[in-house]
Write a structure and sequence with these properties.
3-stranded antiparallel β-sheet; 12 strands; globular
């Protein structure tokens, strides 16, 4: 029979979704599953976006411009100006989610066999995007003991080769929730300028910064104008994951012209999604104030609760809505499967994401899990108690 492509065989399974069959089987048995495995917020989408969808009355749902609806891009440029980011609407390209923005960026700057350096653990789909673009991911490991702070710049520099094209970061981070300081970003800037590399920053969680901290965009780093590429999305900001609208941003005109050719090949981003996303730009600040307060409360319940369990360690993240916890187990993937297939507490269980899938280095993160605090406070509190009882009864503890 015809064979499958090598890159298709290399394509990794999602560590977030691969245990879904076990969750479905648990539900069929009558077990309630608390989903801490996936970053799907339960926060309500802003009413202005929902109204825009309800009031859509065009007779034809047309293609948009390949770079996105111009009026939306102009309003989006105004949005970034609020954060002191001075860009033109032509520096923006609307994409089908942040995922497409990443693939456009990689395909625009990399040739087959080129390399990108990424601090790990990282958003697992970076691996998949890189494989589809024929690009090799070179991981630089950050550790839970430092709260997943930026590794020493010397580690990055030691992995730079003639095939290196970019450094990719997620800020605030998925899966760790780590928020990079301005000083860390300046170190990366200097390294990229020294070796003439692009710096790609996935900033889709920019609004989610806690404890009085502040998100710093690489678009505000002086001297990086031709090197900075930002990935953004409305999915988490407005709790609109399903509209599939993202953004690719760069002041590098040649890069954006190249990306436009890839955009033209896929015709256009979703028209209805752009209408909802444009309307969402009118969301009042009170919405974000309430969301930040809620996520801070949820984070504290989950992280403090996890750290109260004997043998568990979880650094408190400063951004996004994820955390990575080290468990007293030999294999977190086996534990996650066991939670769904063999365990329940009061007919309830928890679904977590094994963290080894967020590392590119073999055997890293094997006793860690990623958890998303996207459930209501009471559900998170109960999830902690489920995990407390589960770790008491799990037969393969470390």
């Amino acid at each position: 029979m015809p064979g499958i492509s090598k890159k298709g065989l290399q394509m990794p399974e999602s560590p977030i979704r691969k245990l879904v069959p076990f969750a479905e089987a648990a539900k069929r048995k009558g077990t309630k599953v608390y989903h801490l495995n996936i970053g799907q917020p339960d926060i309500q989408t802003p009413e202005v976006a929902l109204e825009a969808i309800r009031n859509f009355n065009h007779k034809v749902i047309e293609y948009s411009h390949s770079a996105g609806i111009e009026n939306y891009r102009r309003k989006l440029a105004d949005y970034y100006a609020i954060y002191g980011i001075g860009i033109e609407y032509t520096d923006l390209m609307i994409t089908t989610g942040g995922s497409e923005a990443i693939t456009f960026a990689l395909n625009s700057i990399c040739d087959l066999g080129d390399e990108v350096i990424v601090p790990e653990p990282f958003y697992a789909n970076y691996n998949g995007f890189a494989i589809s673009a024929g690009v090799k991911v070179i991981p630089v490991t950050s550790t839970i003991d430092t709260g997943f702070a930026l590794p020493d710049i010397e580690q990055f520099e030691s992995w730079i080769t003639p095939r290196t094209r970019a450094i990719i970061i997620c800020n605030p981070g998925n899966p760790t929730g780590y928020l990079y300081s301005r000083q860390e970003l300046l170190k990366l800037r200097d390294l990229c300028l020294k070796h003439d590399l692009f710096l790609i920053a996935d900033e889709v969680y920019r609004e989610f910064a806690y404890d009085g901290t502040r998100h710093h965009s690489i678009l505000n780093l002086e001297g990086l104008e031709e090197h900075a590429i930002v990935i953004d999305s409305v999915s988490k900001r407005y709790s609109m994951c399903g509209v599939r609208i993202g953004t690719l941003i760069s002041r590098n005109k040649k890069l954006m012209a190249t990306a436009l050719k890839f955009a033209q090949a896929r015709l256009s981003p979703p028209t209805l999604g752009q209408i909802a996303a444009e309307a969402a730009l009118d969301t009042p600040q009170s919405y974000f104030d309430a969301v930040i307060s809620e996520y801070t409360h949820r984070r504290n319940i989950l992280v403090d609760g996890l750290n109260s369990i004997p043998g568990v360690y979880c650094p408190k993240p400063k951004g996004a809505f994820y955390c990575v916890a080290k468990l007293p187990v030999h294999n977190a993937e086996d534990f996650a499967r066991w939670l769904l297939a063999e365990f329940s507490y009061q007919e309830h269980t928890v679904m977590v994401a094994p963290a080894n899938g967020f590392y590119a280095t073999p055997h890293k993160g094997e006793n860690e899990v990623r958890l998303a605090y996207v459930l209501k406070a009471d559900d998170l509190q109960h999830s902690v108690e489920i995990l407390r009882h589960a770790l008491t009864h799990y037969p393969n503890k470390a």
